[in-house]
Design a protein that fits this description.
Elements: H1 18-44, E1 52-55, H2 58-72, E2 73-77, E3 80-83, E4 90-96, E5 99-101, E6 103-107, E7 112-118, E8 123-128, E9 132-136, E10 140-146, E11 152-157, E12 170-176
Parallel strand pairs: 3-6, 4-7, 6-12
Antiparallel strand pairs: 1-10, 2-3, 4-5, 7-10, 8-9, 8-11, 11-12
Bound molecules: copper (II) ion.
Copper (II) ion binds next to loops.
């Protein structure tokens, strides 16, 4: 028993017992199982998307997002621009203390390149209710090739604690029928 001191001073020099071998084998096989489950779940779980990431300075990301908003804003909701960029192109959403900006309006069954980044700290991009979760860091942009397949309003919530206004850090993606 482990609570008693080993009788032999050179306790590590003993041959393996059957019980040890069994537990090492079980732990090893369980580790392998979990390793392959991670890969399998990427395809079967439909939660975390394949993404690309690139280095980008926060100022550059901010400029690109603002340029898109300036060109394609269709209206405002509570002071936040609702932006409807053309289908097939690049769309940007930035995280900062404490908002996801701007509101995006995307067409159903059209493909977009969604760029996500942070201007200050680490934030979480959690798309509800579909439960897509991504960690967003300043200095890097995450690029996802997405094709929204359901019409509706999807909330974005920050799920990485980012300070006093964290609980108010929300955004939105609207998916609408193509015109
Ligand atoms: Cu946040």
């Amino acid at each position: 028993m482990a609570i008693h001191s080993p009788k032999e001073r050179l306790w590590w020099n003993e041959p393996l017992t059957k019980v040890e071998v069994t537990w090492i084998a079980i732990a090893f096989l369980w580790g392998l199982f979990m390793f392959f489950t991670m890969i399998y779940w990427h395809f079967a779980g439909e939660q975390n998307l394949s993404n690309e990431s690139y280095r980008i300075r926060p100022e550059v990301f901010s400029e690109r997002t603002e340029a898109m908003a300036e060109q394609y804003t269709v209206r405002e909701e509570a002071g936040v621009p609702v932006v409807r960029p053309p289908a097939g192109g690049d769309v940007y959403m930035l995280g900062r203390l404490w908002e996801w900006w701007p509101i995006l309006e995307l067409e159903k069954d059209k493909q977009y390149r969604l760029h996500l980044s942070s201007l200050d700290w680490q934030h979480g991009f959690s798309l509800q209710p579909v439960n897509i979760n991504l960690q967003i860091h300043p200095g890097y942009e995450m690029v996802l090739t997405i094709t929204p397949d359901e019409v509706g309003e999807f909330s974005v919530v920050c799920n990485e604690f980012c300070g006093i206004g964290h609980h108010q850090m929300v955004g939105r993606i609207n998916v609408v029928e193509p015109q």
